[in-house]
Amino acid sequence: MSILEFSLLIWIGSFSAGLVGALTGLGGGVVIVPLLTSVFGVDIRYAVGASLVSVIATSLGAASIYIKQGYTNLRLGMFLEVATTIGAIVGALIATVVTVKALTIVLAIVLMYSAYLSQRPRIEHTEDEAADPLANYLKLNSTYPSPEGLASYQVHSIPIGFGLMLIAGVLSGLLGIGSGGFKVLAMDQAMRIPFKVSTTTSNFMIGVTAAASAGVYLARGYIDPGLSMPVMLGVLPGAFLGARILQGAKTQILRIIFSIVLVVMALKMVYNSLIGGL
């Protein structure tokens, strides 16, 4: 296979990953890493490096749209980025010293959990709740656009959310998946903010988290321009197309297929790692 053919196949796979990732709300990184390792036989560390570059590009492209629309809570995002950035650097440093087999098993577990997350019903927190004193002190409460106009919401459980963001950062740096599902879970379930605010703020945060860990991978030589470029050029248009389709599409069937694919990829990666890919 020539370099041109390999790059074209990587672009097609990355475009599909960006499309499916945007439609399911989990981002393309959770698809790209197992795609590169299982299908194309790329070393997992180089796959993670390429995925981090694509996550940065995708986040920067979509975040500006959500900020203009008024969904993203910038103050909350910058506060939680302190935790995710620290976690991302720690995760990236760990990833450069642990074995490939250990990384593969951890990624397989995260893939299965992501498959579970994609099937969870999304609950909107719209009820009036008592204000959190710490959120008031940090001025994290805000508003977001709704069909009835601007709706206000309260942020809760700041310490718990901060701790979960630290874990999300470690997973992002370790596996290069952006860990958007964990960020959304922390904000939506633990901090009890509206789901649209959770997803858009998570998208804003993912780029900063990935940039922190990408610096470590770049310094260690795990970001290959020949691999990262077609991945980034494929994921970005795929994510934009997925965002447009998502506005009027019913994605439940796609979520089921996506979950099955993630589980199959996870089992294949564990099998290859433990048995030797026979």
Automatic annotation (TrEMBL):
GO terms for cellular component: plasma membrane. Belongs to the 4-toluene sulfonate uptake permease (TSUP) (TC 2.A.102) family. Pfam families: TauE. It is found in: Cell membrane. This is Probable membrane transporter protein. Keywords: Cell membrane, Membrane, Transmembrane, Transmembrane helix, Transport. The keyword Transcription does not apply. The keyword Nucleotide-binding does not apply. Its main location: membrane. The lineage of its organism: Bacteria, Bacillati, Cyanobacteriota, Cyanophyceae, Nostocales. PANTHER family: MEMBRANE TRANSPORTER PROTEIN YDHB-RELATED, TRANSMEMBRANE PROTEIN YFCA. InterPro entries: TM_pro_TauE-like (IPR002781), TSUP (IPR052017). The chain crosses the membrane at residues 7-32, 44-67, 79-112, 160-182, 203-223, 229-246, 253-271.
